[in-house]
Amino acid sequence: MDNKVKVYEVLKKYTMVIVLVAVVVLFAVNTGGKMLLPQNVNNLIAQNAYVFVLATGMLFCILTGGNIDLSVGSVVCFIGAVGGKMMVTNGMNSYLSMLVMVLVGILIGAWQGFWIAYVRIPPFIVTLAGMLVFRGLSNVVLDGMTLAPMPDDFLGLFNNYVPDFFGMEGFNMTCFLVGVIVCVIYVLMVFKGRITRAKKGYRVEPLTGAMIKMVLICAAVLAFMFRLAQYKGIPNSLVWIAVVIAIYTYISSKTTVGRYFYAVGGNEKATKLSGINTNRVYFLAYLNMGFLAAIAGMVTTARLNSSNPTAGTNFEMDAIGACFIGGASAYGGTGTVPGVIIGALLMGVLNLGMSIMGVDQNMQKVVKGLVLLAAVIFDVVSKRKAFIVK
């Protein structure tokens, strides 16, 4: 029975990683290797940068009890419209405009967070209203027109590449060395964590299993950075993604505030009785979502090199899908930032792979919808089986 439980737990924990690897292999075979060309690996990051950022924020909303934010796509569009109006129409300084864009995103998050946290209007209703309001305001600000092009200094922050300090032709050595450094840091952190847990008397994962996991993760990181190095190196958008992931991984796993989100999603009444201000937790979740929507708005505007009324369409669906596919529970209280990144990668691979294969746009939506449904079904069924197995 113990072995059965262990196998079940391992499969449950790494199901989406296995699925991601299988999907990558499937598309690599069906596209004749085009899926893994350096430029396509770069496109995977550039085209899906917004998913990584938005999904990270969406996770904290979902943790509070399966709540979502339907307005993020419209907020991304509105932020881009505000920035375009300032930089293109009025010729304002790019950095000042970016500061205003971030502040607008925070204010939107605070506005929606107030109604959700303190007036207790259901998040679905508040954010559905926000989806309509901010999409409409985007059209009002832009007068239904597209504003372009964006200033070069603004584009440079998001669209350029980290320079190769070695100046090699055809291979960005700086990019590959960054991958090596990341792997070294990761291995050191794993061993440090094991030593700390052992000293405190906590259960430690078997060394063989930990070594296998480290080897596989490092191999994936090095292969990914090798492919990027063969193109232009590290895109600035990847730097933004890495910063967001690092900060929010730390917040969710190492801070008291981060644990509050899990506690509220696990049992709000018990959390409130323990002295935690649950209203503030809800407020922070949506305030943070507004902030990250502003970051995603800038990334998207830079990539499109324009502000247009249709930007951000269905972005909320990609972010929500990435969270649930990455292991976030539809009931709240469960989910991790690394899991969400796996979900976002899977969504990105599906988009890119089907596009290369020439799959019809409508069929692409069908596939993504079925994958999302399968992920949620797996979450619900696995929770029921957990009690039976035990």
Describe the structure.
The chain has 390 residues and is mainly alpha-helical. It folds into two domains: 2-159 and 235-389, Orthogonal Bundle (ABC transporter involved in vitamin B12 uptake, BtuC); 161-234, no CATH class. The chain is built from 15 helices and no strands. The chain has helices at 2-30, 38-63, 72-89, 94-117, 123-142, 152-159, 173-199, 207-230, 236-254, 256-266, 268-273, 278-304, 315-325, 337-356, 361-389. Helix 1 runs parallel beside helix 14 (337-356), helix 3 (72-89) packs parallel to helix 5 and helix 13 (315-325) runs parallel beside helix 15. It is globular, with a radius of gyration of 21 Å.
The low-pLDDT segments are none
- Report the CATH architecture of the largest domain: Orthogonal Bundle
Quickly give the structural class: mainly alpha
What general form does the structure show? globular
Rg of Cα set = 21 Å
Order of helices and strands: HHHHHHHHHHHHHHH
Q: CATH class of the largest domain, anyone?
A: Mainly Alpha
* Fraction of residues in β-strands: under 5%
Query: What level of helicity do the residues show?
Result: over 70%
The biggest beta sheet, please? Answer: none
The pLDDT mean sits at 88
CATH topology of the largest domain: ABC transporter involved in vitamin B12 uptake, BtuC
Number of domains: 2
Number of helices: 15
Q: How many extended strands? A: 0
What is the CA–CA distance across the termini?
8 Å
